[in-house]
Amino acid sequence: MSAALKRKGQLSSRIEEFKAKSGADKRRAIVDLLFNNAMYIIIVIAIIYIAIQVPAFLSTSSIINIISLTAAKLPIALGIGGAIVLTGTDISAGRCVGLTACISAALLQMTGYTNKIFPDLEVMPLWIVLLAVIAVGAAVGLVNGFFVAKFKLHPFIVTLSTQLIVYGLILMFLMIGDNNGQTLSGLDASYTEFVKGTLFRIDGVAVPKYVLYAIILTVIMWIVWNKTKFGKNMFAVGSNEEAANVSGVNVFWTIVIVFVIAGAMYGITGFIEGARIASCSANTGLNYESDAIAACVIGGVSFVGGTGKISGIVIGVFLLQIIFVGLNFLSVDQNLLYVIKGMIILVACAIDMRKYLARK
Amino acid sequence: MSKKEKTIEHVRQENEQPVLLRMENIEKTFPGVKALDKVNLTVKAGTVHALMGENGAGKSTLMKCLFGVYSKDSGKIFLEGKEINFKNSREALENGVAMVHQELNQALKRNVMDNVWLGRFPTVAKGIPITSEKKMYQATKEIFEKLEINVDPKTVMSRMPVSQRQMVEIAKAVSYNSKIIVFDEPTSSLTEEEVEHLFKIIRMLRDQGCGIIYISHKMAEILRISDEVTIMRDGKWITTREAAGLTTDEIIKHMVGRELTNLYPPKTNEIGDVLLDVKELTALCSKLRDVSFSARRGEILGVAGLDGSGRTELLENIFGVATRKSGKLFLDGKQIRNRNSRESIKNGFALLTEERRATGIFSILNIRENATISSLKKCRFGPFLSKQKMKKSTDWCIESMRIKTPNQETKIRSLSGGNQQKVILGRWLLTEPTVLLLDEPTRGIDVGAKYEIYELIINLAAKGKTVIMVSSEMAELLGVCDRILVMSGGRLAGEVNAATTSQEEIMALAAKYA
Q1: What is the rounded CA–CA span in Å between residue A340 and residue A335?
Q2: Is position B266 within any domain?
Q3: Is the pTM of this model over 0.95?
Q4: Chain A within 8 Å of B312 (Cβ-Cβ)?
Q5: B118 neighbourhood in chain A, CB within 8 Å
Q6: What is the ipTM of this complex?
Q7: Is B264 within the bounds of a domain?
Q8: Dihedral angle at the C-alpha atoms of B131, B134, B139, B144, nearest 10 degrees?
Q9: Phi/psi at A37 (nearest 5 deg)?
Q10: Where does a domain end: B406, B431, B456?
C-alpha cells in the first residue's frame, strides 16, 4: 500500500517537474518518452491493427495459444537474460535446446515403437530424464561460463564455438544405432501427458501443463535475481566488474553460475520442447536464441549490462509471440517473418541503446 | 642518513599510540622495473598517516601489495603484531583493512545500499540464502546518520553527483568496521565544503582508534589532516616525519629529490590582439549558457570553477564535440562554425581532453601512431601513408617535447603520465593549431613533469598562440595564466587578472551560481 502511495507521489512529482520545463525542453521530454517506450507503442498499435483486420485474433483459443507459446519460450529467455545482464550473450541456447530435446525424446520413446533409437530401452522415469537433460544443459553452460570467466573471452565467441560443438553432438546422437538421423517421435504417453496434459480449461480450451512449469520457473528466477546474494552479485558484475571484484565478490563463480543456470534452463526447455513438438530432429531449437534475445531486449534487459527485470523478460516474450501469431493471422509469408524478426531485434536494440547514449 | 634515523626516533618518542600496521622491507619487481625497494610503513592507531610521492613513486603499488592485488616479492606485513599476507581484497576487508579507491569503483546502475553491501549482502536469517532489503536499508541509514551523510539508500548511483558517490564510497569503507582505512586521493572530486565534511569523518575515525592512510597530492590538505607523513620516491622509502614540523617546500624537496626553487617557469609570452571571440555560447545538452568572452593572441587564459561548473563543457562546445544550442564563434573577426572536431581542427583548434586514459591516449598503440593520428593528412604519400614522414613528425614531437622513451615503437601505455601528456600535446602541435584548448593539462602528472608542461604552454603562447586552460588547481592557474575566467553553475561568474587576484576572490566567484 505504502509502495503504491510512494509511486503515486513519484509520478506527481515527475508531472510537476515536467510542468516546470520550458517549451523546447517539454518537447524533448515528450520525444524521449515516446522513444523510450516506442517498442510497446508499436506493438500495441500492431495488436489493435491485427484485431481489427482479423477479429479471431482476440478469441479465447487464440489468446491461450499465445500464452502457451509464451510459456514454451520463456525458460530459454530467462536463462539468456542473465548472460545479457553480464553484457554478454549466449547463442548456444537454441542448439542446447535441440540436444536436450533429442535426448529427452530418445529416452522416452514408447516401448514397442518401431523406429526406436534405443530398441531395448524401457521407458525411463520422467524425473531421471529431466535431471539428465538439466545436467547436460548445465554442462554446456559450465563450459561457456568457464571460458568467459577464466580467459575473459567474449561470450559471443565462446557460445559460437559451443553452439557448433553441440550441433555436432546432436547429429552424432541421431546417428546412434539404426536411427540414421531420422526424427525422433513415438513418445511415451506419460511424457506427453506430463508436458502437454490439460492443466484446466477456459471456455473449453485446454491450457497445457507446461504453462504451470513456466510460471514456477519464472517465480524461482525472480527470487534468484532479486532476493539472493548471487542475483545481486550478478547485477553488480554486469554493472561494474572491477567494483564487484574489489568489494570481495567472486566474479569468476558469479559468471560461471549465470551460464550454468542458463544451461539448466535450456535443458528444461528441451525437455518441454521434446514433448511439445513430439518429433525432434537436428533442426529442433534452431534460432531459438534469437527470439529469446529479442524478447529480453524488448523487455528492457539491456546489453549495456547491469539492468533488467524478470517481469520485463516475461512481457518481452509475450509481446514477441503476439506479433508472430498476429502475423500468422494476417497470413504473412513465412519467409518475410524472418525479415520482420530481424528488424524487431535491430529496432529494439537501437531504441534501448538510445537511452544510455551520453548526449553532449 | 643519520638525520633520517633521528627523525624516526623522534617520532617514536613523541607518539606512544600502539602500532596497528607495519610493512617492513617490502620489495616488488615488475619486468624491468623495481617498483618497490625495501619500503617501510608504520601506521599507529588513532593517527592519520599521509603517504606522499610523485606518480610512479610506488604508493599505489605498496597499497596493492597490502591488499593482495599484487603479491610482494619479499618483506613482511604485520597487522596488530600478527603477520598477514592477504591474497585478495575480500580477505583484507574481512580482516579490517579497507580502501576508498581513487577511481570510483561502483556499480552505477544499482542503488546506494546495493553498492554499500556488495560482496556481503545481509540475509534474512543465517543459512537462508535470501537477502534482506530491510536490514540493508536500516544498516545503511545508521551508517549515513553516524557520518551525517544525507543520501537516500535507495537512490540509484548514476543519478547522484560524483561527490555524493564519493561519500557513499567512504561510508562503505567505514561500514566494514575497519581498523585501517586507506584514502586514495579522496578529495579530487569534492567541493571545499565536502572536503571539510570528509575531514570531520576522518577525525572521527581517528578518534575511534582507526589508523588512516591518506594518499594525496594536495600539500595543504596533508599538512592539515595528517599526524605523520611518509614520503616515497622512485619506489624507495625516503623519510617518515611528523606532519607538525613539515613545510610544503620540504615535502616537495623529498618528493622530487632536489630543491624546486620555482614551481612555475618565468612568463615570456606577449599578449597581442583579439583572436577568438565567443558570443553567448549556450549548450544543448548541458547547463552551459550565455558564456561570452574573448581571448587574445599570445594569451594564456585560465578557466577556473568547481567540478560540474561547465568548464569542460565550455571547451567541448567551442571544439564542437558537444552540440551548441545557440551562440557564435569568431576567429580573427570571421565567424566560424566548428560543427565537429574535423572542422575545428581545420580552423586551427586543438583540444587536450581531461581524461587522458579514457579520451586521450590509444593505450595499445605506439607513440608514433598516437602522435600522428590527428595529422595523418600531412604524412600522405599518394593514397598511402609514408612511414618516413610519420617518423619525422614523431621525431619532432619527441625532441621538442623532450619525451623520454626508448623509441617510437614503444606502446604509449608504458610511458609515465607526464610523457603520455607530452605525446598528446605533440599530437596537437602537429596539426599547427592557433587556439589550444587544454583541459586539466597537468592532472595526474608529477611535480617535475608539471614544470615542463608549464614551460611548453608558455612557449606556445610566446609564439603567438592562444591557450585556454581549464584547471582545478588554483595555484597553477595563478602561476601560469594571464587572465582567469571563473565558471559557476554553467555560467560565467567573472573574469579576473591572474597577477592581481587571490584564491579567495576566485572561490567567491566560483560559488556565485553554484
Answers
A1: 9
A2: no
A3: no
A4: no
A5: 232-233, 236, 243-244, 247-249
A6: 0.74
A7: no
A8: 120
A9: -115, 20
A10: B431
